[in-house]
């Protein structure tokens, strides 16, 4: 699994206030700040699941092999490319549109797709994704419904899908049950931005059968005018302590951003809020899908 480096507007400032009771209880254990010039990052988790048994004949060879996220990133790195990792929110504006958006994005050749699980207190997300989650929940989105949709769609996709979920919905369902549901839905990974530090050991033990891996993340989502130049140095610092792939996200929204991050030798770029806006600001699902295709294609084509 790749390390995910999220570029925040100020690397020395903390993330948003952890207003949820669960996060208040553990906030001191997982600071997001700089200490003596070194970045302290929050741990999140990724659980790699087996590929679904059924595969459509139209799938690519990569899809038929059921590439894990780590394998997909390794392949990109071996080819000297930069991974393209789009993010959208599940069920915004509805699950049928999300299913079509996943198919559309997959047709453009992404290396990984992140799918956000709607949550009522998305404190690590900026206003665009917060509004997107609110719309999805208002429309009746549930974890079960999202998993059911994914179970139908993932066999058609040629790239791995990773769920981005806050910890509270996972705890409510039970970590083992949530991981099992993700496996059954064909999901390849799970990112938990607010996984408390003192929960990591227990979470890893409970999900060991699902091949749990740990990655790191810092920052709050949202498109920005510029990418923090500190990211360039941080990339080099991370490479001194790991040989895992490093993807940069949070704030990536323009062709210039994509080219800049690729030029800094990041292994991948993650585009979230700007992708979500294409669907969320459209007057209809059809218009949103058209906007998403044009925008995603332009960023994909900007990558080396």
From TrEMBL:
Residues 7-19 have a biased composition (Low complexity). The keyword Lyase applies. The keyword Amino-acid biosynthesis applies. Its EC number is 4.2.1.20. It comes from the Eukaryota. Keywords: Amino-acid biosynthesis, Aromatic amino acid biosynthesis, Lyase, Tryptophan biosynthesis. CDD domains: Tryptophan_synthase_alpha (cd04724). InterPro entries: Aldolase_TIM, RibuloseP-bd_barrel, Trp_synthase_suA. It catalyses: (1S,2R)-1-C-(indol-3-yl)glycerol 3-phosphate + L-serine = D-glyceraldehyde 3-phosphate + L-tryptophan + H2O. One of its GO terms (molecular function) is tryptophan synthase activity. Residues 1-29 are annotated as: Disordered. Pathway: Amino-acid biosynthesis; L-tryptophan biosynthesis; L-tryptophan from chorismate: step 5/5. It holds the Pfam family Trp_syntA. NCBIfam families: trpA. Belongs to the TrpA family. This is tryptophan synthase.
